[in-house]
Amino acid sequence: MERLRLLCVWMAATVMLGIAAPIGWSQQARNNSRPLELSRAVRPWEFLPITGTRAGLLGNESGHMEAWVYPLKIFREFHLKFHTEGRVLPAEALARTVTVRPESATILYAGDTFTVRETFFVPVGEQGAIVILDVETEQPVEIEAVFHRDFQLEWPAALGATYLDWAAAQHAFYFGEEQRKFSALVGSPTATEAHPEFQTNYSESQESSFRLGPTAKGKERKLIVIAGSMEGRAAAEKTYQHLTGAYADLLRESAEYYRDYLGKTVIVELPDGQLQQAYDWARVSVLQGMVSNPYLGTGLVAGYRTSGESQRPGFAWFFGRDSFWTSFGLNAAGDFSSARTALVFIAKYQREDGKIPHEISQGANFVDWFKGYPYPYASADATPLYIIAVNDYVIESGDTAFVKEKWDSLWKAYEFLRSTYDEHGFAKNAGVGHGWVEGGPLLPVKTELYQTGLGIEALRALSNLARVIGKEDVSSELSQNFDKQKPLMNEAFWIAEKKRFAFALDKDNHAVDEPSVLATVPMWFGLLDEAKADAMISQLAAMDHQTDWGMRIISEHSPKFSGGGYHFGSVWPLFTGWAAAGEYRYHRSFPAYANLRANALLALDGSLGHVTEVLSGANYQSLSTSSPHQIWSAAMVVSPLLRGMFGLRSDATKGTLTFAPHPPADWTSFSITSVPVGSAKLDLHYSKDPGEIKLEVSVTGDASRTIDFQPAVSLRAKVLGVEFNGKSVPFHVDSNGIDQHVITKIAVGGATNTLRIRIQNDFGLSYSSTLPAIGATSQGLRILSETWTPARDRLTINASGLAGSQYKLSVWGAEQIAAVEGARLSKAEDGKTELIVGLPKNGPEGTSSVAISIHFAKANQR
User: Fold this and answer.
1) What is the rounded CA–CA span in Å between residue 746 and residue 341?
2) Nearest to 854 by CA among 715, 746, 721, 735
3) Would you give the DSSP letter of residue 642?
4) Which residues are registered as beta bridge partners of 123?
């Protein structure tokens, strides 16, 4: 039913935009014409961004906007007024619904006798924007467009004196400055009654406005066009005319641009509809971070928000570590071109001593940015992340020529990193730059576990890159250093009596005992000892660390905690993504799925289609200082899904794909298509029933590929055999304390390949988390640990949640259960079995815990 509803929405939208609707759902999935449209009642406070690579409209759902043609801000406080029946009605009072699509956003305004649909649109590659106004009215109505001129360069650059004139030939306001280099036009083909800002000795107004001409009874379309230029008035006029005359074609082209992008990157078909929708939006949201600055080049900015009366639109300038964390998601989704572009851009501004930049303002070329400001090289973590990100790109894409091209840059980065080592060989923060934490009560420290982990992973990454280009001696030495440093880190940061990792080491090499989600970063790379990581995850999975909307940086029980603390209590989707990926890597699927869903649900709430930068750690709401469209936050839907839950890792240099999925127990099928492995693309379809796991694979390309298939099953499951294309193949089973993985390697090629794993007595539980109401506190269930008896005849689960609450878990393999303690079994309306968990009413601070024991009947053996 959900797919049918979405398809109907898409068909209606495509008719409106003049785009051919897809013939069927299967064809739609193949071409990825899946509808991407979100709609809801207007929340006036929510951020509404419409962005291209060269321009952006940034505002809110009430219709107030500011316009940018990078790196130039044109106006702020743009809004509409409706003149009808002798009254002037502010549009924001009539805003009813908002609908967002990748290329545009529409606000519906409804008066007593008229409606206006205001569609904001920024063409992908143009230096301007269009506002389309579709009017339907019973009585004459006229629209007035109002704005404040704010003609300035992005911080910290600035223009001198600027001015505003009415250009009658273009029916537009002309924005200019003394050098006649920076120009803009804002107007409409039907614009009349221009009222410019003014200032006299006795009065003034910052508002400028123009009317669009009256609409009598019936329907009519009006346009507002915004164009900017860094090359003088003639260039701005040319763009203005182009946008005015070609807006319909540009709208179609932009819609096709995003559909084509979704079709050529990794596509998923999931039983979790919300996760499905969020993944598609996340790919779009990340792509919208690609910005072309005419002076600096093309790279990834960090995020967007309104700048108000300032010239800082959120984090809409270029960041090193943001680009690198985002590049992992781009590589996972198969967008190697964007990942390469982002890496090249940041590397271009590497410091002479090898340090990698932290941030580059879009106005950097107008000031002495790199030597006159403290921000460009403020972080220590960007340098190791650069090495790691290049290695990730090369492995996934197979672009080994890139290693040769960037080897000198990589080695300089390593030499700088090595110069920051302490006596243990750990990369320092003290005297070098901040790691993750930039300020607040968690500092000062000598080195964070986060920074040490990145420094050690950089050794492994550079070792592989050296091997790729034949530098075997260098590769061997770096590999030996990695093998030495990894156990040292696991020892130095481990607090044995508390079974957790320290946040950092202080200047005296003492462990700073502040358990933190930052420990999941070395987990992302598989650097922590399994038993220690498992114990740490159990602590991080508790309600004092994990909220319903994501991971706090530290426990709310810490004396240093504040829910609004940017680096000492808030929830970052970035942290949540780290945790999900790390938890999946260490087989902790319950907290991992909860964290993955938290980020996914954020993409469907807040700024629609986007994931915010940071939220309160106390209750569900974004911090007032947050950038609501944050690029690496969106990437933290993509990476935890593809690399976390699905365990997908492609090595194009070897022609292999690892597929080690941890799907929820109640997922009986899912598909992942267009997975790149070198020059080939693979389509994967996973399905299961109580007796079998089946993987169907088709390959598009000129060569066979090797799949290392490693699906997770429960510790209770017995594997009876594996067949590939009807023939038995070898396999082995790798067990850990939580689950076991059936491991087999197969060579696939052509249209049809089928692998069957015959199993018996598989068992599993699944729980789908939800977001609370805005402003509310956490209410969901937390699975803290899972313990099996050696005989696999009893499973004990420790869980916590809101005191007095009841939770439902889906059960796979319920027929095996003999008895349950601490919960009860129930039949759902669809006939499936559920485990009902009721928590005691009394608990500290409104929480409660329960131990659930599930006893199994003696297994039947075949």
Assistant:
1) 34
2) 715
3) I
4) none
- Grade residue 4 by pLDDT with cuts at 50, 70 and 90: very low
Q: Give burial (CB, 10 Å; 0-12/13-18/19+) of 828.
A: exposed
DSSP assignment of 711-769 = -EEETT-EEEEEEETTEE---EEEE-SSEEEEEEEEEE-SS-EEEEEEEES--EEE---
Phi (first) and psi of residue 819, to 5 degrees: -160, 155
Q: Rounded mean pLDDT of the chain?
A: 94
CA of 354: how far to CAs of 351, 387, 416, 420, in Å? 5, 11, 5, 12
Phi, psi values for residue 108, rounded to 5° = -100, 120
Sequence-separated (6 or more) residues with CB below 8 Å from residue 590: 541, 767, 783, 786
Could you give the CA distance from residue 169 to residue 83 in angstroms, rounded to a whole number? 25
Q: Which helix (H) or strand (E) holds 257?
A: helix 233-264
d(CA 648, CA 664): 16
The packing angle between helices 573-585 and 631-639, to 10°, is 20
Decide: 608 and 98 in contact? Cβ < 8 Å: yes
CB neighbours (10 Å) of residue 678?
Answer: 20
Within its chain, how far is the Cα of 600 from the centroid? 8
The whole-number pLDDT of residue 5 equals 35
> Facing residues of 783 across strands?
799
- Residue 281 CA to residue 266 CA, distance in Å, equals 13
Residue 19 reports pLDDT greater than 70: no
Q: How far apart are CA 163 and CA 177, in angstroms?
A: 6
**SS3 of 410-457:** HHHHHHHHHHCECCCCCECCCCCCECCCCCCCCCCCCEEHHHHHHHHH
**3-class secondary structure, 796:** strand
- 508-513 contact pairs (CB < 8 A, 24+): 509/422, 509/424, 509/446, 512/442, 512/445
Q: What is the mean pLDDT of the segment spanning 535-553?
A: 98
Contact call for residues 850 and 781 (beta carbons, < 8 A): no
Q: How far is CA 530 from CA 485, 767, 803, in A?
A: 16, 24, 32
Q: Which amino acid is at 758?
A: R
* CB burial of residue 254 (10 Å; 0-12, 13-18, 19+): buried
Q: Read off the pLDDT of residues 651-681 as tens digits, 9 standing for 90 and up.
A: 999 999 999 999 999 999 999 999 999 999 9
The number of helices, as runs of H, and strands, as runs of E, in the chain is 16, 53
DSSP class per residue in 569-617: T-B-HHHHHHHHHHHHHTT-HHHHHHHHHHHHHHHTSSSTT---S-B-S
Query: For residue 844, what pLDDT is reported?
Result: 67
- Residue type at position 584: Y
Which of 513, 605, 587 is CA-nearest to residue 550? 605
Residue 87 has pLDDT above 90, yes or no: yes
Angle at 42 between CA 39 and CA 45, to 5 degrees: 125
Q: How do residues 197-235 score in pLDDT, each as one tens digit?
A: 988 899 988 999 999 999 999 999 999 999 999 999 999
Give the span between the Cα atoms of 682 and 18, in whole angstroms: 33
φ and ψ at residue 334, rounded to 5 degrees: 85, 15
CA triple 317-629-371, angle to 5 deg = 15
Instruction: Tokens for 124, please give them.
Output: 């992908």
What average pLDDT does range 371-381 have in this prediction?
96
User: Which of the 8 DSSP states describes residue 552?
Assistant: B
26 by Cβ neighbours in 10 Å (0-12 / 13-18 / 19+) ranks as: exposed
Q: How many CB atoms lie within 10 A of CB 224?
A: 26
Which pLDDT score, from 0 to 100, does residue 751 have? 82
Report how far Cα 529 is from the mean position of its chain's Cα atoms: 28
Extract the tokens encoding 316.
């809409």
